[in-house]
Amino acid sequence: MWCQRLPWLLRGRRGSTGRRWPWLPRGPGPVLAVPARCHPTAPASPCCAWQLHRDHLELRYGSTVMRLDFVWLRDHCRSASCYNTKTNQRSLDTASVDLAIQPQAVRVDESTLFLTWPDGHVTRYGLQWLARNSYEGQKQQVMHPRILWNAEIYQQAQVPSIDCRSFLETDEGLKEFLQNFLLYGIAFVENVTPTKEDTEILAKRISIIRETIYGRMWYFTSDFSRGDTAYTKLALDRHTDTTYFQEPCGIQVFHCLKHEGTGGRTLLVDGFYAAERVLRQAPEHFELLAKVPLKHEYVENVGGCHNHMIGVGPVLNVYPWNNELYLIRYNNYDRAVINTVPHDVVRRWYHAHRALTAELRRPDNELWVKLKPGKVLFVDNWRVLHGREAFTGYRQLCGCYLTRDDVLNTARLLGLQA
Ligand SMILES: C[N+](C)(C)CCCC[C@H](N)C(=O)O
Ligand SMILES: O=C(O)CCC(=O)C(=O)O
Ligand SMILES: [Fe+2]
């Protein structure tokens, strides 16, 4: 094991003596002429040590140990001939790189890795850039910082609603709104004129509206104009929408324009909080919910509306490299026949689904709000489940779906991590 002999692993941080530790590659003879070594670095910069292997460079920078494949190192070259910094696009034809490529020479100073390739081309990498962009660096990072909540956590946080004018007219207002939205998966704008047109203006401030089979901006009342229980007065248990799309809608906007009657409160539940609890209590349940693909389906034949949508995917969708949850697909109404799961897994899946449902239904996870004209709710439909209480009387909601990429785009342009 080479690491047993590497001083930086024994000593933690590199000492201040500036002494070099020569290192010989192990295994069946040295593969490259370049000797690996731990280099002295400026006192303030993290220790850097490196070692060459047959097909990759192993580099320790601070606490990150990176294994950088030679083809990867050639492919990501940021030199003027390989990368267009005006368009931020690769110009290098990756298919022209020899898949057995090895650098001819390697050098590291306190901030930069220099590689010379067999054709004489020189590639430079900032060590910080490598630490951020390596697989190991990504693994340590979360893609989306979030605050998971139950009702108490959310209420105690006293997340403010953003005033409509500040949202529409200032970057600060918009940024605060988006920060709340990214952290909690829900956010409110208040003092909005209760019309469909004004709601559309809000939506367009952060995103492109995602047109679906329900239209672009939709209005709905309990008139059963469409083949879905949303268009009735019945209670709706917690769910995410459009689970029957290959890519469920990212965000849902709700604006209650009118309600003359009783009931009709909106229920919000942080699906990621519930999933996190399942992970802690029964990781095997979490894993099953993340692995077993299911179908959701929307079959409609009402009036002139004929639709048949199918979406396939697990209940919990995680990034494969760090297991971070990014999408929950949970809609017991729209879940289709389970016919993609082998016999011996079905029962285990039902147990896992029950465990998640039990968490989602814990009363302390339920946030109940009464939507009022003027107050617009944005829900992260990949994370937060919504439902509603049964109601009486005339109730009219308007809203739309947003494309997730465009909301995140706006957030990034304002300097937020999204
Ligand atoms: C929001 N809007 C009323 C337009 C549509 C409702 C869609 C309801 C469907 N069961 C689902 O969960 O996707
Ligand atoms: O009526 C409501 O408050 C919400 C209904 C619903 O779930 C939906 O429109 O997606
Ligand atoms: Fe819904």
How would you portray this structure in words?
A hairpin with a 5-residue loop joins strand 9 and strand 10. Strands 11, 12, 13, 14, 16, 23 and 25 form a seven-stranded mixed beta sheet that branches. A five-stranded antiparallel beta sheet has the order 1-2-3-4-5. The protein has twelve helices and 25 strands. By secondary structure, it is α+β, with helices and mostly antiparallel strands. Helix 9 crosses helix 11 and helix 10 packs across helix 11. It folds into two domains: 138 residues, NE0471 N-terminal domain-like; 263 residues, Clavaminate synthase-like (Double-stranded beta-helix), CATH 3.60.130.10. The N terminus is likely disordered. The structure holds N-trimethyllysine, 2-oxoglutaric acid (AKG) and fe (ii) ion. This is Trimethyllysine dioxygenase, mitochondrial. GO terms for molecular function: iron ion binding; trimethyllysine dioxygenase activity. It is an enzyme of class 1 (oxidoreductase). It catalyses: N(6),N(6),N(6)-trimethyl-L-lysine + 2-oxoglutarate + O2 = (3S)-3-hydroxy-N(6),N(6),N(6)-trimethyl-L-lysine + succinate + CO2. It is found in: Mitochondrion matrix.
